[in-house]
From TrEMBL:
Keywords on record: Aminoacyl-tRNA synthetase, ATP-binding, Cytoplasm, Ligase, Nucleotide-binding, Protein biosynthesis
Full protein name: Tryptophan--tRNA ligase
Locations listed in the record: Cytoplasm
Quaternary structure and interacting proteins, as annotated: Homodimer.
Residues that bind L-tryptophan: D131
Binding, ATP: Q8, P9, T10, G16, N17, G143, D144, D145, I182
Gene: trpS
One GO location term (cellular component): cytosol
Amino acid sequence: MRIFSGIQPTGDKHFGNYSGGFRQYAATQAEGEAFFCIVDLHSVTVDYHPPALRESSLNLAAMLFATGLEADRSTIFVQSHNVAHAEAAWLLSAVASFGELRRMTGFKERAEQQTFVTAGLFTYPVLMAGDILLYQTDLVPIGDDQRQHLELARDMAVRFNQRFGETFKLPRGQYPAEGARIMDLTNPEKKMGTTTSSDMGKILLVDRPDAIRRKVMSAVTDAGRDVRRAEDKPGVTNLIDIMSVASGRSPESIEAEYDGQGYGRFKAAVAEAVIECLNPIRERYLRLRSDPVELEKLLSQGAEKARQVSAPTLQAMYDAMGFVRRSGG
Ligand code: AMP
Ligand code: TRP
């Protein structure tokens, strides 16, 4: 089975990324041939700082290994190292409609935050579809916020196959049972996000124990003392989800232990569970990050493999679409 997922090298990664991303990547790599892509081409679709992009890409590589990916088991690479991604995006734009791209909620939300809305932000889901389809992917581990993008990638694959002939496998998304959508600690009505959450709203994977305690203890809860998941208790529900992801315990067992005990004691337990989960990750991350030469070596090996595996599909796309064959190609 082929597994593929992508993650953006922007800003410091947070607990939502751990829950919907990293944690699932490490779990799925055992199930088949896995590719994890640092999607730097996606990161230039909003305003960004060029010198920071290189640093963030290496930070992210270190975090992928720190959270459990193994270079001899999975392929970890940088998107821009395989030009097939940019080419596939252009070719696939022939089967993406203006209307469906305009309906993407990810686009609408991010466009609102920008003074200059790039064309790339609009066509971003086409680039993402190419990432996935180039590898004949079966399974895409992602968080809930990427569901609409994955559905669009499937629609584009079906449309391409119908219009130009059978070329792509149909990928399916895999969403975590618990914690597919971790919410902002200061406002549990919106998701925890890299740019959309304030410092106190998100737990960073590199946060030290005191910062984690401070953030969790001041998280917004709800009226009452109940520790149980309910629609009208988004704050407590979110903390139960966070504890469940951090500790591997079921939400039911957490409710059974803490219900009726008040929020102070519960929050302290959540903080300790998160610290226990993230501490070893932070330590591994710092060790890996101190050796950029080794990281770059692993990434260049990953890129070589990614180029080899995607090349036949890219060629099949050109052929199916009627382009003149390149000599020797
Ligand atoms: P990004 O950093 O936006 O590239 O996202 C990387 C992965 O993290 C994707 O699979 C997202 O679906 C996932 N993710 C981002 N934010 C959250 C969140 N608040 N809860 C759960 N998963 C998330
Ligand atoms: N758009 C995804 C996000 O922001 C990142 C991404 C890019 C991705 N290409 C992908 C995820 C391919 C899964 C598969 O989280």
